[in-house]
């Protein structure tokens, strides 16, 4: 394997938000309806749009006021270059994004319907090369950060290492368990200050049927009882089901006309991370994340849809 590994002692300024995770190029097609199994549908065009849950969250945190660094892997190819250049233009420190010749940059095939709903299939590619050793090598960046954010598009041993290192260092640790395939190991939940699944993921993590705000609160309470200190089940237009040690709340979402929900959850997570890094209380950080996500669904694509802080106006001021 030929890899250009970043230096552990890079001279970049300290980041408050460290995102550990995936970078993908999204291959996006828009169709009136999502195809059923066995059905062929026509689309007018194929677009390539920067994405990946980790990179989307990094862009969101940066546009919404955070000083952000990204730790992840891309291939030594045009998509990898485009993704790193794009993050740099957002002010994200990419010195911990390593470039590998042995795998292509991660890809996501995204189909978006006129309703705004999507389906996504990912090919992990270089994202699967992230290792615990790469995480440990960046201990100094973990020490400097206030908030650590992980998702599940990276290998489980690397995610576990990042969660535990963040927790050991007393950082605010956020896990967006996406995509989820089943329950999480208990030590992972114990490392999480914030656990943020959507309703599908909450069902997979708990074996609860999550089909209403009340059932989302039940799933959140279950995950809280397993060790995660703040659990937020994102419910799209129905808001956020939030459970902590003393409260069980449904926080309604701002009204938005959705054209594409891709990266809405990532926008929520990145905004929340930026707000927490600034010292916002959980409720204010949730409101900030909801305001940002509500804007993102009104626009097409993953990273292009993410708003800047100046666009959130009075809502942003209230959230802080
Ligand atoms: O959450 C949306 C993202 O999921 C897309 O950008 C795609 O790359 C997949 O990772």
TrEMBL record:
The active site is at 266 (proton acceptor). Residues 15-307 form the Carbohydrate kinase PfkB domain. It comes from the Bacteria. Substrate binds at residues 24-26, 52-56, 153, 266. Requires a divalent cation, most likely magnesium in vivo, as an electrophilic catalyst to aid phosphoryl group transfer. It is the chelate of the metal and the nucleotide that is the actual substrate. One of its GO terms (cellular component) is cytosol. GO terms for molecular function: ATP binding; metal ion binding; ribokinase activity. It catalyses: D-ribose + ATP = D-ribose 5-phosphate + ADP + H(+). ATP binds at residues 198, 234-239, 265-266. Keywords: ATP-binding, Carbohydrate metabolism, Cytoplasm, Kinase, Magnesium, Metal-binding, Nucleotide-binding, Potassium, Transferase. Pathway: Carbohydrate metabolism; D-ribose degradation; D-ribose 5-phosphate from beta-D-ribopyranose: step 2/2. K(+) binds at residues 260, 262, 296, 299, 301, 305. HAMAP family: Ribokinase. Belongs to the carbohydrate kinase PfkB family. Ribokinase subfamily. Belongs to the carbohydrate kinase pfkB family. Homodimer. This is Ribokinase. It comes from Ralstonia insidiosa. The lineage of its organism: Bacteria, Pseudomonadati, Pseudomonadota, Betaproteobacteria, Burkholderiales.
């Amino acid at each position: 394997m030929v890899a250009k590994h970043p230096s552990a002692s890079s001279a970049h300024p300290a980041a408050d938000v460290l995102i550990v995770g995936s970078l993908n190029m999204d291959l996006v097609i828009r169709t009136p309806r999502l195809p059923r199994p066995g059905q062929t549908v026509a689309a007018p065009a194929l677009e390539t749009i920067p994405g990946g849950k980790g990179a989307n969250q990094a862009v969101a945190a940066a546009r919404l006021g955070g000083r952000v660094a990204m730790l992840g892997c891309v291939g030594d190819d045009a998509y990898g270059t485009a993704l790193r250049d794009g993050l740099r233009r957002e002010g994200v420190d990419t010195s911990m994004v390593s470039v590998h010749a042995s795998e292509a940059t991660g890809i996501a095939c995204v189909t978006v319907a006129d309703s705004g709903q999507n389906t996504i299939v990912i090919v992990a590619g270089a994202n699967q090369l992230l290792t615990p050793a790469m995480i440990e090598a960046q201990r100094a960046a973990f020490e400097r950060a206030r908030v650590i954010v992980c998702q599940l598009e990276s290998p489980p041993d690397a995610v576990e290492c990042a969660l535990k290192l963040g927790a050991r260092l007393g950082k605010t640790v956020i896990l967006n368990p996406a995509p989820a395939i089943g329950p999480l190991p208990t030590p992972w939940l114990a490392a999480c200050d914030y656990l943020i699944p959507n309703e599908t993921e909450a069902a997979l993590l708990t074996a609860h049927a999550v089909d209403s705000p009340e059932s989302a609160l039940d799933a959140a309470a279950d995950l809280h009882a397993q060790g995660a200190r703040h659990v937020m089940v994102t419910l799209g237009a129905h808001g956020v089901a939030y459970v902590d040690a003393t409260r069980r709340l449904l926080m309604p979402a701002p009204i938005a006309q959705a054209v594409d929900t891709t990266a809405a959850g990532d926008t929520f997570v990145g905004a929340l991370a930026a707000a927490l890094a600034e010292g916002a209380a959980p409720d204010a950080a949730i409101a900030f994340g909801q305001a940002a996500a509500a804007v993102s669904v009104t626009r097409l694509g993953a990273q292009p849809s993410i708003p800047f802080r100046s666009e959130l106006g009075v809502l942003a001021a209230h959230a802080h």
